[in-house]
Specification:
about 150 residues, alpha+beta, Rossmann fold, two-stranded antiparallel ribbon, globular
Length: about 150
């Protein structure tokens, strides 16, 4: 999860720190957010995979379907045997030097989701507006994972 608002140097530093080789993004997002200079700089150190390529591919719907089946299965995504594997790295903004990364495991992310669910009685009938970006810890866990992984 790269914080594109942190500036080009901070994003490049985050890529080097995390040892990234590939960044997945959308040409449309880059255009709308006026991030062409950032995309050009990124392209010099990592491979950029453009999502628009997959929008036209029939295989992408297979990947999405597989994920949704896993997330909505009776045992759910909790039973995947990857609790201790790294799932995401969230970075600080770098306002006090180079951005610092926090590695979150599958178990970390699921524990955060369970903690939120324990405090608020969410159901599939609820609607949620996520105003936070996914590079923010609450944007990722509360705004994306929690509603994605709610079980009926």
């Amino acid at each position: 999860m790269l914080n594109h608002t942190a500036g080009t140097e901070a994003v490049l530093s985050a890529c080097r720190t995390a040892g990234l080789h590939t960044v997945v993004t959308s040409r449309r997002f880059i255009e709308l957010a006026k991030l062409d200079p950032l995309a050009e700089a990124l392209g010099r150190i990592v491979e950029i995979v453009w999502l628009e390529i997959y929008a036209l591919s029939s295989g992408s719907s297979i990947n999405c379907t597989a994920y949704l089946r896993c997330a909505s299965a009776p045992s759910g995504i909790d039973d995947l045997h990857c609790e201790n594997r790294s799932s995401a790295i969230l970075f600080t903004s770098g306002s006090e030097g180079a951005p610092k990364g926090v590695v979150l495991s599958h178990a970390n992310l699921l524990a955060n989701r369970r903690q939120l669910s324990a405090r608020v009685d969410f159901s599939p009938a609820d609607q949620l507006l996520n105003a936070l970006p996914m590079f923010h810890s609450f944007g990722l866990t509360a705004g994306f994972l929690l509603p994605t992984l709610i079980r009926p």
